[in-house]
Design goal:
- The chain has helices spanning about 5-30, 65-75, 85-90, 110-125, 145-155, 170-175, 180-200, 215-225, 260-265; strands spanning about 45-50, 80, 100-105, 130, 160, 205-210, 230, 250.
- Helices cover about 40% and strands about 10% of the residues.
- The chain is of the alpha/beta class.
- The chain has one domain (about 45-265): Alpha-Beta Barrel (TIM Barrel), CATH 3.20.20.370.
- Bound molecules: zinc ion.
- Zinc ion (ZN) binds near residues 107, 108 and 211.
- The site of zinc ion has 5 residues, from loops.
């Protein structure tokens, strides 16, 4: 029975400690987990790819082993790869996104999307949005064929959206053409692309990637008129609350985005410090 007073004193001390800590916490107006970090303004990160292959031939190429490492990193570090349409819904004010949302796009319809990207997309079962300019398809030597695009769409993992009809530089076209001719070109590029893709794939096309990331108020108005509900730039930024739905930012991924650089990119700038910078032997 001698233990009772001791245990009672300990109990009181513990209780007092809790009360003091709680009072201090309330005085600061703090609650657990309320500290703001830069990553908290990150709704999602959108990654955009162009070309893959065994080696880097230009700044837009991500080698296939590096791409494989990046997908493995997302898979093993709690990231959710969500359809780009889910990010758009969220920006438009409906739907919800998981905390570590990443969306993946590939622009221009390069044939290595079919040969190199597809096997990894199927391995990890991740949704990818392709931004296609139809004039290149089954035409340019570097581009996919319509059949390959149909094959990608049939996997259920790839969706196909517009990158205008022939990927013009709207800034130089505006300088070169008379105002009326320029407006005509813009309308044709926006309409013909959407109509061609909708006819080819029998599904609605509502998203647009601005060629070279070039846009302004006039182009945005034209895109809305042509039926697009969302458009994407290549500004290097997270998708944050209040993003402009007609210029949603995307990061162009480069072959340097491995290890800590990639971890920082997808976390919105608050990466863990223990990322191994080297590539594994087995990229899957
Ligand atoms: Zn492009």
């Amino acid at each position: 029975m001698k233990l009772i007073p001791i245990s009672f004193r300990l109990g009181l001390a513990a209780l007092l400690a809790i009360i003091v800590a709680d009072a201090a916490s309330q005085a600061r107006g703090a609650s657990p987990g309320s500290a703001a970090t830069p990553a908290e303004s990150r709704i999602a990160v959108i990654l955009v790819y162009h070309r893959f292959g065994p080696k880097v031939t230009d700044s837009m190429t991500v080698t296939t082993p590096v791409f494989a490492w990046q997908m493995k990193y997302l898979h093993e570090n709690g990231y959710s790869v969500v359809p780009l349409s889910e990010v758009v819904k969220f920006v438009l004010g409906s739907g919800s996104l998981p905390p570590r949302a990443v969306a993946i796009a590939a622009d221009d319809g390069h044939r290595t999307v079919f040969t190199d990207m597809k096997p990894l997309v199927e391995h990890y079962r991740i949704p990818v949005t392709l931004f296609i300019y139809p004039s290149a398809i089954s035409n340019a030597s570097y581009a996919m064929t319509w059949e390959q695009l149909r094959d990608l769409k049939a996997t259920g993992l790839f969706s196909i959206e517009s990158h205008t009809y022939w990927h013009p530089n709207f800034r130089s076209e505006k300088k070169r053409l008379a105002p009326e001719a320029y407006r005509g070109l813009v309308a044709t590029q926006l309409d013909k692309s959407r109509e061609t893709l909708e006819r080819r794939f029998n599904s609605k096309v509502e998203m647009l990637a601005w060629p070279f990331g070039i846009y302004d108020d006039e182009l945005i108005a034209a895109a809305r008129k042509a039926g697009y509900i969302a458009a994407f730039s290549i500004e290097r930024s997270n998708v944050a609350p209040g993003a402009n739905v007609m210029a949603i930012p995307r990061y162009i991924v480069t072959n340097h985005d491995t290890g800590r650089a990639f971890a920082n990119l997808v976390s919105g700038g608050s990466a863990e410090r223990s990322i191994q910078p080297s590539l594994p032997n087995n990229p899957y």
